[in-house]
Specification:
With 190 residues, the chain is mainly alpha-helical. It has one domain: Up-down Bundle (Four Helix Bundle (Hemerythrin (Met), subunit A)), CATH 1.20.120.450. The chain has 7 helices and 2 strands, in the order ααααααββα. The chain has a two-stranded antiparallel ribbon.
Length: 190
């Protein structure tokens, strides 16, 4: 197995670990627990999950375009950029905690979207989450046989593009970050 296949396998393992964590920790909670807000300006678990979905859907769409546009062929390794690695690191929780707060763009803020009439339905949110991770896993599988290193993955900053590997890393680190947040909300519920 070459280095690229190992990198992709590691990502697929992370996807499965994330799915298991969500199933074990949040999926079967009652609606009351999923809607609980520790403070009026804080997100509920359902809102955290909706935010993850909005971000994941955006990145998965871009990753999908990259995989489908890439030519067939082998690559020895997934390449990362200096900026992409740095950006992905800022998303990752450190020692199980989110250490740096980041502003949320309005279009991916579930509270702002609710004011525009979008509803957060708990079971739909979790089904969308699982579906997105299944789609990501399938894209990773397809990427093994494609030349994806030249792809440029869109971000929410219009001029900023990431490599394929950077895009996957950002998506997974962002998900981990907000699952820590959801865990914190659950522990505050008591």
């Amino acid at each position: 197995m070459n280095k690229k296949a190992q990198q992709i396998q590691a990502y697929q393992t992370r996807v499965e670990q994330i799915k298991k964590h969500v199933l074990d920790s949040f999926y079967y909670l009652e609606a009351e627990a999923l809607r609980y807000k520790p403070a009026p300006d804080k997100w509920s678990i359902s809102e955290v999950m909706e935010h993850i979905n909005l971000v994941n859907h955006f990145y998965i769409k871009s990753l999908s375009k990259a995989v489908h546009a890439a030519t067939d062929g082998e690559e020895a390794v997934l390449r990362y950029t200096w900026f992409g690695k740095k950006f992905a690191r800022t998303m990752a929780p450190r020692k199980g905690e989110v250490t740096n707060k980041m502003p949320t763009f309005r279009k991916i803020n579930p509270v702002a979207r609710a004011k525009q009439g979008y509803a957060v339905v708990e079971k739909v949110v979790f089904q969308n989450f699982m579906d997105d991770l299944d789609q990501l896993s399938e894209l990773l599988k397809q990427a093994r046989e494609k030349k994806v290193n030249r792809a440029r993955i869109k971000t929410f900053a219009p001029l900023l593009r990431l490599s394929f590997g950077d895009g996957v890393e950002v998506l997974l680190n962002h998900t981990d970050r907000h699952l820590v947040q959801a865990g914190r909300v659950l522990s505050q519920k008591g």
